[in-house]
Amino acid sequence: MDLSYFIFLSSGLFLGWSLGANDAANIFGTAVGTKMVKFRTAAIISSIFIILGAVITGSGASQTLSSLGAVNALPGAFMVALAAAITIYWMVQLGLPVSTSQAIVGAIIGWNIYSNRPTELGVLSQIVGTWVICPVLSGIIAILLYYLIRYRLKKSKIHILRRDTYTRIGLVLVGAFGAYALGANNIANVMGVFVDSSPFQPLRLGSSFTLNSTQVLFLIGGIAISVGVFTYSHKVMSTVGNNLMSMSPVVAWIAVFSQALVLFLFASQGLKNFLTIHGLPSLPLVPVSSSQAIIGAVIGIGLAKGGHEVHWGLLGHIALGWVATPIIATLLCFVSLFFLENVFNLTVYLP
Amino acid sequence: MFNGKLSLFSHTQPLENKIDLFHDKLLDAAMNFKKAIRIYLKEKRSDDYKKINKQIKQIEHDADNLRRDIEAKLYTQNLIPDLRADVLNLVENLDKVINKFDEVVYEFYIEQPDIPEEYHMRFKEICDLSSECAENLSIASRAFFRDFSSVRDFSQKVYFIEHESDVSSGHLKQAIFDSELPLANKLQLNNLTSEIAEIADIAEDCVDELLIFTIKRDI
After folding, report:
1. Residue contact A150–B217, C-beta within 8 A
2. Residues of B whose CB is below 8 A from A153
3. Which CA distances in Å does A257 have to A104, A174, A222, A261?
């Protein structure tokens, strides 16, 4: 394996870094912002569980992205990830809502168009469908949880100091689950396009564990996300904080749990198999936006509280994210691939 | 399981006890205040009155120590960060009521007012109403920590009793100024009546804030 591989992989690592910097705030933002959990604790837990989620459960959503567009040349994969990363950076600069999942899907479609490959409309509609289902499902789960927890808290007549202790433990546990689900679901965004060109050999860990080539790639991506969590998410947590709705720690717990559950539903092959075997409806394994999942949860809780605190503008933000992000990423990827192929003479796709 | 639970709450249990103890102090102050005014009306500044005055001073002193301890622990152990400011406000408000009980009993001790017998009933009545206000405030505040759905019930009682106290103290003041007492005496009794009624007013202010805290405490 030569150094050039890592140069091409750098765009994916950058994407991973930005994902860690932004999306960890969705998991631990309120807990850290309200000083219920220390940033250091949040960062360590996030990092460990994001990596575990990425390595253990990350392959499901990644396969769906591959079926949308199997980026088969390394320079092409580099540009797909870079186009997604630049789109995200650009939209963040413009103050527009952005999702890594939507950016990467747009960039893959850009690669498909450039390489004259048809985009599987069935897969695309499945992916776009999940973007709508994701916040709605998260909202429904949050509403149910809100009523259940509120009822239980009223019944239990627990002292606020004890409730505080339980909430802290709950925030750490749900944060770990949220980080695991984020790693499992969103590693596909970061490393999915590099899977087909992965040069890694299986890695033996002790005598009983072996990571396959894709898992090694996901481990590297997971580490990039963790670096993002450690180096930049504190800043995002302190600025983003409670900007969706002023949340109590218990409400934050509900929102994060709903988000994590939805991300996990869209990531876990095991859960999908379990639901299918038992004749229950299962969801496709697709990378979804953790930000939109949490916005869905917060809006759900806001509705359960009477709807006075809901910022309805957020719905417009989500819809804008669905449309603007993939279109910009598609265009950017298409133009960039043209430059990469014609100016730098690199093979961006194999026939 | 039991041990696990114990260690999980090992740092909150002592604070829970202190908060409970603080509420007990408010109840003690209210009870002793009622008793003190009755002793004064019967025996004026007797040894018994001096003794109960000291007791109330001690309650006030203990409550101050508990308040400081609660405040320090909430901050040093970084407990309930979202509600800490409200809890501190609440504890300080309750402490104001305890201080007022001590202040009024001490004023009687210093001024030794002459209270004609025909006003004794009225004085006892407004003392009882002020004490009741404080007692209900204590119950409402205790509920804030465990069972916030009943805060409203006890708060409503405080509002009702405070209104009764206003009416009663108004009648007493009118009776004092309609009497043939010397003006200095009238002014002194008027001032003491206002001081006693103020206990109920402070309790009402506490309840106003407590109800806001309760709304915030709901998830």
Report:
1. no
2. 219
3. 25, 6, 21, 6
Percentage of the residues of chain B whose pLDDT score is greater than 90: 83
ipTM score above 0.90? no
> Helix/strand/coil (H, E, C) string of A100-145?
HHHHHHHHHHHHHHHCCCCCCHHHHHHHHHHHHHHHHHHHHHHHHH
The reply to whether residue B8 touches residue A250, judged by beta carbons under 8 angstroms, is no
- SS3 call for A281: coil
Domain boundaries, chain B: 11-217
A246 close to A27: Cβ distance less than 8 angstroms: no
Q: Specify whether the CB–CB gap between A336 and A177 falls below 8 A.
A: no
**What is d(CA A34, CA B79) in angstroms, rounded to the nearest whole number?**
11
Q: What chain A residue is nearest to B218 in terms of C-alpha separation?
A: A150
Q: Which residues of A touch B15 (CB under 8 A)?
A: 161
Best residue in B74, B82, B83, B84 for a mutation probing chain A (most A CBs within 10 Å): B82
The strand pairing partners of A205, in sequence order, are A209
Q: What is the DSSP letter of A309?
A: S
CA–CA dist A29, A194 (Å, integer): 30
Residue showing tokens 């003190």? B36
How far is residue A180's CA from residue A191's CA, in Å, rounded to a whole number?
16
Query: Is B16's CB within 8 Å of A162's CB?
Result: yes
Chain A residue closest in CA terms to B14: A161
Q: Do A159 and B81 touch (CB under 8 A)?
A: no
**Phi/psi of residue A35, nearest 5 degrees:** 65, 25
- Fold (topology level) of B11-217: Methane Monooxygenase Hydroxylase; Chain G, domain 1 (1.20.58)
Contact list in B for residue A154 (CB cut-off 8 A) is: 149
**Bridge partners of residue A203, in order along the sequence:** A211
- Nearest-angstrom CA–CA distance, A185 and A290: 9
A146: closest CA of chain B, how far (Å)? 8
Cβ–Cβ < 8 Å for A169, A188: no
Whether B81 contacts A33, CB under 8 Å = no
Nearest-by-Cβ selection for B9 from A35, A149, A162? A162
Q: B183 at the A interface (CB within 8 A)?
A: no
**pTM, two decimal places:** 0.86
pLDDT digits (tens, 9 = 90+) for A84-118: 999 988 887 776 667 888 899 999 999 999 999 98
* Interchain pair B83, A154: CB under 8 A: no
Asked if residues A26 and A294 have their Cβ atoms less than 8 Å apart, the reply is yes
How big is the A-B interface in CB pairs under 8 Å? 48
Mean pLDDT of A328-338: 95
Q: What residue type is A142 in one-letter code?
A: A
Instruction: Nearest chain A residue to B12 by CA: give it.
Output: A161
Nearest Cα to A26, choosing from A260, A321, A307? A260
Segment B138-155 mean pLDDT: 92
